[in-house]
Amino acid sequence: MQANYNFTEIEKKWQTHWEKTQQFQTTEEPGRDKFYLLEMFPYPSGKLHMGHVRNYSIGDVIARHLTMKGKNVLHPMGWDSFGLPAENAAIKNGIHPNVWTWDNITEMREQLKTLGFSYDWEREVATCHPDYYKWMQWIFIQFFNHGLAYKKKNPVNWCPSCQTVLANEQVVEGGCERCHTPVGKKDLEQWYLKITDYAERLLNDMDGLDGWPTKVKTMQRNWIGKSIGAEVDFPISGFAETMRIFTTRPDTLFGVTYMVLSPEHPYVEKLVAGTEYQNQVADFRKKVQYLSDIDRTSTTLEKEGLFIGRYAVNPMNGKEVPIYIANYVLMDYGTGAIMAVPAHDQRDFDFAVKYEIPIVPVIDPCDDTIDLYDLKEAFVSEGKLINSGPFDGLDSETAIEQINQYLEKENIGKKTVNFRLRDWLISRQRYWGAPIPMLHCDHCGWVPERLENLPVLLPTDVEFTGKGESPLTTSKTFLEAECPTCGGKATREIDTMDTFLDSSWYFLRYTDAKNEMEIWDKDKAKYWMPVDQYIGGVEHAILHLLYARFFNKFLYDIGYAPSVEPFTNLLTQGMVLKDGTKMSKSKGNVVSPEEIIQKYGADTARLFILFAAPPEKELEWSDAGVEGSFRFLNRVYRLVFELRDELKDAPKEYTVATEDDKELAYHLHSAIKKVTEDLGNRFNFNTALSAVMILVNELYRYKTVRERNEGLLRHAVESLVLVLAPFTPHICEEMWEQLGHAGSLYKEPWPTYDEKATIKDEVEIVVQINGKGKEKIYVASGLSKEAFLEETLANPKVGALLEGRQVVKMIPVPGKLLNIVVK
RNA sequence: GCGCGCGUGGCGGAAUUGGCAGACGCACUAGAUUUAGGUUCUAGCGGUAACCCCGUGCAGGUUCAAGUCCUGUCGUGCGCACCA
């Protein structure tokens, strides 16, 4: 051991040791408590950033702590390695995506290793490896065989910059999730996964996810967007088909004064064909089509519409009402058509005022301040029904029930549940993804590739232009194939899968990552699943976490996933900021992990990140704070260096004798207790570390006292090294060795504490007068309420306080305070 | 507009159950060590000259006691948003 803390040497030494001894490789041990700890695997961009370091440092503390506590910990790592950046690099630099990606993986793996994370590298997966995407394709075929994958022509979100379609979830504020380019619409035939079949379960099963942040659950609930209402059919005068609408307010049916079709609604063309309205309607539709999604859905956009010369019949009262098309009705929600009740819906109200359509109130608010026949705005709450024939006088809730029954009895509608969630569009017109393992045959239609032919390999003879169709069309070898069903000529699907599919099941593959015969051994999956703790950025609250839950449920249904939900506990870590904003190249405020590791070592980097803020909060990077963490590690190192020779031979048994001993024992056991609780019950690493720092300060005090108790001191220093080990593993291994132990400290059990030692004989008590602290006194701890009151009153300081005052009440809180209420 | 968070010293943050507000760290100040700087060590560090007193965004309320609970309000961050 050198006198100076040589972190470079120490970290290299122990990383090599862990690798050589296969310290963190795990296998199933039935009967032993398992813990599956998972951090979101990274996209291999080539460079690790601070967000990664934070994510994985948090995970590593938990993994190492639980390992020391005797759990069988699964802690894997891998690569979400399909995706657009690789392809863009290929277009720009002429490097094949495969080469680019694997180079990056190699580089990032090395970086992760310099941070000393306790991964079982034997389980590493890369989604771009054929051994992985073979099973991705297998899952797709399972979806197809169960009727949950289908191809459909539909207007889809198109990112002109990425030259590909996007799922609804990947459109953020009308722009592409990745490049923020405004997204347009294109009519394309694409593959979809029927996630909507799982909407109800995805929603309901969240009730059991107590270990998830409310925020994430709320976001998913809103995204799924369940609304209960009714579908009602309105006959159209002079037209064979009826107009089906969805409403959440069947109680307002009698207040309908007009109807609206979405401009894209398939009926529109037929309804105006050959009429004087035909041209106007065509113009209007064109105008709406050119609007981007951002404008179309903006609340500030003026409502515009057009009467199309047709009338619908209200099935409740037989009244005819005009049919409009309008920009505020969207084709892809509900039925793409609405009934308009201007008196009780603000949007309809605005529209009715603009186009001078009658406003008929049917819900009485029972409020004198509202004049129902001269409304200034729509009354949108519930109330009592009026102008509603046989339903007059009912409150909204009862009316909804009775009207729904009436609708069903008369066969004009029924109670319906509607979801905001759309089916998941998974086709991508790009190269660097898993090929969709489907073939089209003129005789058999769309058929899946035979399982024994998987994987459908990505062809390598492909040109990258970044334009037009999927690059797979440029392959001479890929397109033509044999139909798996009839043996005739068939053509392969040229689109690849959205990379979010790859990351929707990797956590299951880790349980048996190298299996070539099946997707995973069910017994192995059963041993490890579900993931006990999942850690990652909140930006995945909807996309990844919803998709992964969907995949897991499907795989559960077909007997492959052992649990209904994949992730029991979820921790969403906060962002790493510098100067108050997210680190980014364009702002020039990026702090590179490599630099910090080189200057201070991985242990310092980890310590700073864990100490500066609680994990779920944002973390402001501070160079001075890093210095402080480095200083602390030096301080601990010096302490051990100075004491090691005498402590090596110190007795293992000891008795706490002097007041100084008691003080050290108190701090020792308090620190162990605090760290144990903060790591076990809640992940507050910052407060755990502050407890460790207090212990170090105490040890510096204790080593200067006249009568040192070597046995106690040894126990204290060794415990210090052990409780600090999950946070800063390398320096702790080194110190452990220097204290005379052979091998890794991760074979040591987690230190235990003596509750009695954490309680002082005498405790400080605050004496309050009317709730204000006046005196501090010491009394024995552990007293009953009565004895406590007696003791405190016997104290002369309290006596002095009572002098000349009229006591109304005494409130004793044993061990804490005495509040005396006086007049 | 709707939903969910968050507002505590110069800064990051602590106070887990309603019970001493400001743990721990950073920055700062003074002193010791050092030829000097750095390192290290010691002490101080919410406001106020000061004891009293005042202090957890603001205004109320409940309570013997409120950073913590309730009502309102302002600010801020995130999510969703013409969802019928």
Measured between the Cα atoms of the first and last residue, the distance is 67 Å
- What is the approximate shape? globular
Return Rg in Å. Answer: 34 Å
Fraction of residues in helices? 25-40%
Can you count the helices? 25
Low-confidence stretches: none
Descriptive account of the structure:
A four-stranded parallel sheet has the order 2-1-26-27, covered by helices on one side. The two termini are 67 Å apart. With 823 residues, it is an alpha+beta fold. The chain contains 25 helices and 34 strands. A hairpin with a 6-residue loop joins strand 13 and strand 14. It binds one RNA strand of 84 nucleotides through helix 7, strand 11, strand 15, helix 11 and strand 30.
Primary descriptors:
single chain; 823 residues; alpha+beta; 4-stranded parallel sheet; 25 helices; 34 strands; RNA-binding
Short description:
With 823 residues, the chain is of the alpha+beta class.
Helix-strand layout with pairing:
Blueprint: H1 7-20, E1 34-39, H2 50-68, E2 72-74, E3 78-79, H3 84-93, H4 97-114, E4 125-126, H5 130-145, E5 149-159, E6 164-166, E7 171-172, E8 175-176, E9 184-193, H6 199-204, H7 214-224, E10 226-235, E11 242-247, E12 258-261, H8 266-272, H9 278-290, H10 293-296, E13 305-313, E14 320-326, E15 337-340, H11 346-355, E16 363-364, E17 384-385, H12 396-410, E18 413-419, E19 424-425, E20 427-428, E21 438-441, E22 445-448, E23 480-482, E24 489-492, E25 496-497, H13 499-502, H14 506-509, H15 522-528, E26 531-537, H16 543-557, E27 567-573, E28 576-578, E29 581-582, H17 593-600, H18 602-612, E30 619-620, H19 623-648, H20 659-680, H21 685-702, H22 710-724, H23 729-738, E31 762-769, E32 772-780, H24 785-794, H25 796-802, E33 807-813, E34 817-822
Parallel strand pairs: 1-2, 1-26, 3-4, 12-14, 26-27, 28-30, 31-34
Antiparallel strand pairs: 5-6, 5-9, 7-8, 9-19, 10-11, 10-18, 12-15, 13-14, 16-17, 20-25, 21-22, 21-24, 23-24, 28-29, 31-32, 33-34
Helix pairs in contact: 1-23, 2-18, 3-4, 17-18, 18-19, 19-21, 19-22, 20-21, 20-22, 21-22, 22-23
This protein binds one RNA strand of 84 nucleotides through helix 7, strand 11, strand 15, helix 11 and strand 30.
